[in-house]
Sequence to fold (352 residues):
Amino acid sequence: YDLPEERIAQYPPERRGSSRLLVLDKNGPDRVDALFADLPAYLPEGAVLVANNSKVAPARLLGARPSGGKAELLLLTPPPLVERAARSEGGDGFSAPAEALLKPGRSIHPGDRLGFGPDIEVLVEAKHDFGRHDVRLFWRGSLTARLEETGRLPLPPYIRREQGPDDRTRYQTLYARPDKAGSVAAPTAGLHFTPALIERLRDQGVRWETVELEVGLDTFRIVDEDDPQKHVIHTEYYTVPQRTVDAIAETRERSGRVVAVGTTSVRSLESAWNPETGAVTARDRETTSLYLLPGSQFHVVDALVTNFHVPRSTLMMLVSALATRDQIMDAYAAAIEERYRFFSFGDAMLIL
Fold:
């Protein structure tokens, strides 16, 4: 399973795997209320779990505008990509273009220079919809190190408190890779996995493989159009390693099922489907804007571990495509009645 040792050491002891799990049969009317710790009992024999091992970058910075007023930046371009595009500014200084969310949007204009501590400065180059801006970052030393020192995690917008001391570990999956810090949101279906549960899955012979998708902030953007097919989904970078491709092929040969952990894993695997070969193909940091909604066909993923999502989101569209909209609406109604917790730190659903 190749879990990062530092994540095992950092794992919050108070997280005991007590999340609830709603098991939904997409081929029938059955639903079961369970605990997430019971997940191994509901997985099909011979299944392979595929999870997104991307790490959330502390890419939210607090600083100042030229007037002295407060400014806030959320770096949307993955930090590793920014560093790869960097050019030397002399000494230990570097710069690179990037995309960012800036606040307060009405008070920030192209040409402004914003300061985020002694080692990071931003030149605003262009302004777009939804608070997005083209910027040029200037920094000293390692950008990743600067963000680790001064940055904050971009908690979901519906969490209205500031980052707490435990969020750096709580808002990361157990299997997040330190070298894959490119996401601005956690693949939250994976937050339920504990070291004990991972060990039980291993002992049960459940295969575990990974993909990487750098989660963008548009994951939380609401579908405003009355016709969801007119919605334009965001573009994200993803990787599907050859090892995962081979595991899926071997699982298929044994008539096993592919269970995605989270919607980002679904989008990675389905994006890697090659219709010419009828199989998944390895991908290395390619882009995807795959939008799955009712009527879409799934070629790779048979089942899904997921959280309960925000209404009118592309995530709701995806789960309503894997099951049906009526099944999902009924399941959500039951979850509300049974007082399941929703969203990033909430409970989970297994769609079989």
